[in-house]
Amino acid sequence: MKKGDKTITLEFERVIPAPPGEVFKGWLDPKTPGTPWNENDKLILNPKVNGFFYWLIRGTAHYGRFTQIQRPAKIQHTWVSRYTSGEESLVTVTFKKKGKDTLMKLVHSGLPNNEASKAHKDGWNYFLDKLAKTYGSRARRGK
Question: Which CATH number fits the domain that encloses residue 128?
Fold first, then answer.
C-alpha cells in the first residue's frame, strides 16, 4: 500500500483441515460457525451469480451481489457497508487443495483507504480464525 493510494486491498490465508469442496460448501452455509453468515441479527442470503445478500450484525448492515461462483474453487461478491463509506468493494475467496487440507485465501479489494475500511482486517481475521477452529474440531472428532 503506497501513501496516497485511494483504495486498499486486504489479504488473508488460512489452512483449513478439510477438502476444498467441503470448505467451499461450508463457507456458504449459515449453519457453519466461522462464516460471516453464521453470526447475524438478520440475514438474507442468495448465493448464486447475481444473487444478493443482506447481512446485519451488531447494528451494521452489509450487502452485496455474488459475481462469481465456481464450485469448489472460488466465490466472489461485492461488499458495501458504512465501513466502506458506502462504496462497493470486492471480496474474493479461493479454495485450493493443499495435501488433505484446503488453502483458503480471502482478498478484500477496492476498500477506501481510511481507518474504517482497515477495520475489516479485524473482522476477517475473526471469522477465518473461527472457521479454522470449527474445521479443526471436526477433524479431531473424525467428522
Answer: 3.30.530.20
What pLDDT sits at residue 139?
72
CA distance 13 to 35: 14
Three cell numbers, residue 46: 442468495
User: Positive or negative CA dihedral for 137, 140, 141, 143?
Assistant: positive
Number of domains in the chain: 1
Q: What is the pLDDT of residues 60-103, one digit of tens each?
A: 999 999 999 999 999 999 999 999 999 999 999 999 999 999 99
Helix (H, G, I), strand (E, B) or coil at 132: helix
Q: Residue 59, Cα to own-chain centre: how many angstroms?
A: 19
CA atoms within 13 A on the CB side of 98: 14
For residue 37, give the 3-state DSSP assignment. Answer: helix
Q: What is the pTM of this model?
A: 0.93
The enclosing H or E element of 31 equals none
